[in-house]
Amino acid sequence: MATIIDGKVAAQSVIETVTRAAAALESGVGVKPGLAVVIVGNDPASHAYVNSKSKMAKQCGFNSVQHSLPEETTQEELEKLVSELNADPAIHGILVQLPLPKHLKSEPVIQSIAPEKDVDGLNVVNAGKLATGDLASGLISCTPAGALILINKIHGADLSGLNAVVIGRSNLFGKPMAMLLLSSNATVTMAHSRSKDLPGICRQADILVAAVGRPHMVRAGWVKPGATVVDVGINRVPAPEKGEGKTKITGDVAYEECAAVAGAITPVPGGVGPMTIAMLMANTVVAACRTFG
Ligand code: GUN
């Protein structure tokens, strides 16, 4: 049976470090890290994520600000808010929750966030730094940064000689994950919905990272025996066993059968998810430290 990689324990350790750093920054130089989270519209799942981000920011001792804008917010209004947050010295990190309602274009909004406050690592400046191997001076997307910490727990920091396969090519996850694995010396394949023989590609992986948004798509036959399987999926599915109309969160990996083949595996929930929030806090405290020099 595979080693279960506990993301809650790893995230707690990051949160403790961040909380200590925030307290030291405030008592030492009077800088209280500030995180602004912006959400547009009424999607209940997005509201739940955003609430947990704001709550964790408070717990870490940050100045935590949430802007909940109505569904009918215009592009201009949203970009005006971002520009005010860019200019606000009490705010060190800005996160605009995605996806935005259909009438809004996310790319201009994301690119209008000041790179030094872009705690999602989505601005072209931060994405470009990661792509060119500068892991130190920018901000790195939270979910891949958190997933890498979990991978490092099994393989150490140097992934030389290991084949890594990332399924999914989003700007938020797949691309930065591939860049991080490459910077750690892994041999990286990016697979996606148009790839031929996805199971065959995945069976080559010593490290298999799934971010496809399809429940239980990765089956045991896709997993090389002994591989590390990292499940980034957060899919809400019906859970009749919990009662009529109830739902639960499940991953992109068919957990039980893959755990029987893998060497190590992240569960959903309790794997990569808690790391995303922890790394958001870490990025915010780093951004706050940099304002001090
Ligand atoms: N929606 C789902 N995950 C994320 C995330 O990490 N950042 C943002 N901005 N939106 C998301």
UniProtKB/TrEMBL annotation:
Which Enzyme Commission numbers does its entry carry? 1.5.1.5, 3.5.4.9
Q: Which residues form the Tetrahydrofolate dehydrogenase/cyclohydrolase catalytic domain?
A: 5-120
**Which residues take part in binding NADP(+)?**
G168, R169, S170, I234
Quote the Pfam families the UniProt record gives: THF_DHG_CYH, THF_DHG_CYH_C
CDD domains on file:
NAD_bind_m-THF_DH_Cyclohyd
Gene Ontology CC entries for this record = cytosol
Q: In its keyword annotation, does this UniProt entry include Phosphoprotein?
A: no
Residues covered by the Tetrahydrofolate dehydrogenase/cyclohydrolase NAD(P)-binding domain: 141-290
User: Which pathway does UniProt place it in?
Assistant: One-carbon metabolism; tetrahydrofolate interconversion
Identify a single GO molecular function assigned to this protein. methenyltetrahydrofolate cyclohydrolase activity
Quaternary structure annotation from Swiss-Prot or TrEMBL: Homodimer.
Question: What does this protein do, in the record's words?
Answer: Catalyzes the oxidation of 5,10-methylenetetrahydrofolate to 5,10-methenyltetrahydrofolate and then the hydrolysis of 5,10-methenyltetrahydrofolate to 10-formyltetrahydrofolate.
Name the chain's protein. Answer: Bifunctional protein FolD
User: What organism does the record attribute this protein to?
Assistant: Pseudorhizobium banfieldiae
Gene symbol of the encoding locus: folD
